């Protein structure tokens, strides 16, 4: 069975999934955040995904240029796919390519994600 003996072919054939959030934990964690916590969570998430894709270490400030981190167009497409899989948000590839740093990617995700509805309170009756 080629899927079992050749991991690369397994990924292409829909066998084993690539590393990343496969059980919805990222989306659940994001859903539990609001306001500034959400922005902080998104920045940490983007840094973690960039680290995973590039095999490197992203500086904590999040201001290093993506090209300086060694990300090429294929890696950026992989990031885009990770965002779609983990968070359920589709970002056009051109926008991902236009991002200058991890903070920019996090802001892009924040803008693309649906905003959580504010909690409603029952009217006094």
Automatic annotation (TrEMBL):
<dbReference type="InterPro" id="IPR036736">
    <property type="entry name" value="ACP-like_sf"/>
</dbReference>
<dbReference type="Pfam" id="PF00550">
    <property type="entry name" value="PP-binding"/>
</dbReference>
<dbReference type="GO" id="GO:0031177">
    <property type="term" value="F:phosphopantetheine binding"/>
</dbReference>
<dbReference type="InterPro" id="IPR009081">
    <property type="entry name" value="PP-bd_ACP"/>
</dbReference>
<keyword id="KW-0596">Phosphopantetheine</keyword>
<dbReference type="InterPro" id="IPR006162">
    <property type="entry name" value="Ppantetheine_attach_site"/>
</dbReference>
<keyword id="KW-0597">Phosphoprotein</keyword>
<dbReference type="GO" id="GO:0017000">
    <property type="term" value="P:antibiotic biosynthetic process"/>
</dbReference>
<dbReference type="InterPro" id="IPR020806">
    <property type="entry name" value="PKS_PP-bd"/>
</dbReference>
<protein>
    <submittedName>
        <fullName>Acyl carrier protein</fullName>
    </submittedName>
</protein>
<feature type="domain" description="Carrier">
    <location>
        <begin position="37"/>
        <end position="113"/>
    </location>
</feature>
């Amino acid at each position: 069975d080629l899927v079992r003996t050749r991991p690369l072919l397994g990924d292409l054939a829909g066998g084993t999934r690539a590393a990343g959030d496969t059980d919805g934990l990222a989306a659940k964690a994001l859903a539990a955040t609001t306001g500034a916590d959400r922005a902080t969570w998104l920045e940490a998430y983007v840094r973690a995904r960039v680290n995973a894709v590039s095999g490197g270490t992203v500086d904590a400030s999040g201001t290093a240029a993506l090209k300086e981190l060694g990300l090429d167009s294929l890696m950026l497409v992989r990031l885009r796919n990770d965002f779609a899989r983990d968070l359920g948000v589709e970002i056009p590839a051109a926008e991902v390519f236009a991002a200058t740093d991890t903070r920019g990617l996090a802001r892009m995700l924040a803008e693309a994600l649906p905003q959580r509805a504010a909690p409603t309170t029952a009217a006094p009756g």
